[in-house]
Structures are given as C-alpha cells and as structure tokens.
Amino acid sequence: MADAVVLLEAVRKSYNVGTPVETEVLHGIDLALEKGELCALMGPSGSGKSTLLNLIGLLDRPSGGRLTIDGHETSGLGDKALTRLRGHTIGFVFQYHYLIPAFTALENVIMPMLVDRGRPDPEMRARAEALLDSVGLVPWRNNLATNMSGGQQQRVAVARALAMNPALLLADEPTGNLDTKSAQGVFDVMRAVNRDHGTTILVVTHNRSLADQCDRIVQIVDGRITPDEGTAAHG
To answer: What CA–CA distance (Å, rounded) separates 199 from 24?
Structure first.
C-alpha cells in the first residue's frame, strides 16, 4: 500500500459515544485509494457515504481504526495539523458550487491561494489561468459566477479545488444539480484532471453511467463496504 493516497484500516465512526444512545454508522471500513486512481463511491441514502467522505476529507475524526492520508497517519494530529494537511492535500467539490457570487471565475480560483499565502502575487494569477484553461473556461475567466451556466460554475469549482495542487480530490455528488449533458461535461473535466495530473479522485454519485467510467466502483451499504467492489470500465 506504499502508493496509497488514502488508507483506512478497520475504521469505525460512532455518534453519542459513551451514552445509552451510541450509534455506530461505519463498521470496520478497510479501503485503499491508490495514487492516480479515479474511484466512484455508491450506496443508498443513509448508507454512510457522507460520513465516510467527511472522515477522508479530515472534516471529522474516526471513533476507531487507522486513517492515513498521503502518508500521514492522522490519529495523533491536532486540529491545526489536520487543518494544514487538509488545506494542502485535499480539494473538495460539492453538489452546490459555493462560488463567491461577486467574484469572477478567475478571482474564485485565486481565492484558496490568497488565503494560504496572505497576499497576491503574479504566480497565483498564472496558476488560476492555467487551471481555467484545463477546464475550458479561459474565455469566461472575467465573468461573474452569477453570469455562468450551472455546468460552467461546477467547472470553476473543480478548478478552484485544484488551486493548491492537492493529491486528493473529493467530489460529493458534483453533477447532482446538472442536466445530463452538463453532468458529462463536468465529469469529463475530472477525468482529464485525473489523467493529466495523476490526481486521485473519489467521487460520490448516484449516477451509474458516470460511475461506470471510473477505474473502480466501491459500494457501501449499512456502513459497510460490500465484499465485491464493482470493477468499472475505464474509458
């Protein structure tokens, strides 16, 4: 597992720990995502997908087991160290784009770099332009977020998620609000990022046709990874 960007070993997650109503929602999860892998996570509502994604994204802590992200075992890390690791290792794309409405596409992509470095520099603009080029949006770089289509907004969100050059991209239903054509367009962008930059991508989706385009499909049911992880045909 030397090349695993994500490694979960017997990971559990419970809520209301130590109370009579303690509830375990993830049960002994074992999962590895290799460097450069494009993986779909599927499962019915309430199966534990969001909880699992929150753990991998370092937005929550496991109740038990080991979670290793990009070679860093996380159980001994404090909140500041976790925040630093998350900021430099993980990019997020959600069902809603969460772009700043008053900012242009370019300014939205620059923002994570500006927050990290504290002041603007020419390199930020150059990287943001390159990222917008990679998602096919250079002609729209000066458009306000509110003056873009849903598909364009999500592509800006993908570019923004890549601003810090993360080893891992987590996408939670990134095409859930889009029509079929726009959804495929956004997914094509993520596949290109995976192919061209070697970014490991875990995408939560209910869309089987998109999941089938990934390297692998992982199914989670009732807080457990199913024994047979469906193998997807990578296009």
So the answer is: 31
CA distances (Å), 144 to each of 3, 19, 111, 182, in order?
40, 49, 14, 19
Residues 112-137: tens digit of each pLDDT = 999 988 888 889 999 999 999 989 99
Strand order in the sheet with 216-221: 90-93, 168-172, 200-204, 38-42, 216-221, 224-225
Query: What is the DSSP pairing of strand 23-34 with strand 4-15?
Result: antiparallel
For tokens 């250079």, name the residue: 138
Q: To 5 degrees, how large is the angle CA 230–CA 205–CA 226?
A: 35
Global model pTM greater than 0.85: yes
Query: CA–CA distance from 163 to each of 10, 106, 112, 173 (Å)?
Result: 32, 11, 7, 20
CATH classification (class only), 36-55+78-225? alpha beta
